[in-house]
Fold this sequence. Notes:
By secondary structure, the chain is of the alpha+beta class.
Amino acid sequence: MQVGSRTLILNPVSGTGDHAEYVAQKARGKGFAVWRTEGAGDGVELGKRAAREDVREVAVAGGDGTVNEVLCGLAAEDHLDAVTLSVIPAGTANLLANNIGIRDIDHALDLTDRSDVRALDVGFAADRPFLVSCIAGLPANASTAASSDLKGSLGTFAFVVTGVQEAMEFDGLNLSVEAEGENGDEFWEGEAITVLVGNAREFIQGGGQANMEDGLFDVAVVEQMPPSGLVTEAVVDRLLGENTEAVTHFRASEVRIRETDDEPITFSRDGELAEHEHLTLRNRRRALDVRVGPDYEPP
């Protein structure tokens, strides 16, 4: 492989797992070298390899978690500002692709030759990057609990089903949330069911207001409420509405989340899970060039 060439990093088992040969063949026809992941963490190592070999155009075929692994590898080698990213949606939810106007695999492959390139914000949770969201609390727990079999049979609805089940058992988190943003310093403390820090405009299915080019996160803190009330809010799709009772919104370039009882919190960073007692998130404005679809609009 020549230095600076186009490279596709392919997760052959993401989503339904029936896309691998088709994507590889089409990508090679467009001049991409094809590297395949074989297990968890391989995307990170292949991202590092792409950086070390000075690859300037990287396409990732997989779900949001695969894209995030590759980003982690690129960031670890300080290569984010030297690469253009193409997203080939082959996962279950494909939230990032939806946010940047990518409809499906064929649409994404077609855009590798002719799409607009936009510089998008990159969020960092400690030193780990993310493009869509970093979530603490109930949705992160639901993501953990949703089995591969359930996701395979129900798709994105698996997270709804699991979320309702988890809501009945979730005890909430005792948190403090500090933020530096467009309206100065913000502070919230109390018992919360979840904190959602969004970098993308629609950072969960049906919600979120973040702009991917303004250097600010959209933060929603959802206070603890009885499980019946939480499920009702979720079902009517009002959980993150601006006027929903028990939801606090603010926009910030830096967010600090701490468990006031010093208990570990499960965070989901673009689908990748980690535990922290406290976590600082920073937004790096327009840090990554990404190919976007014609329907993409930042505001």
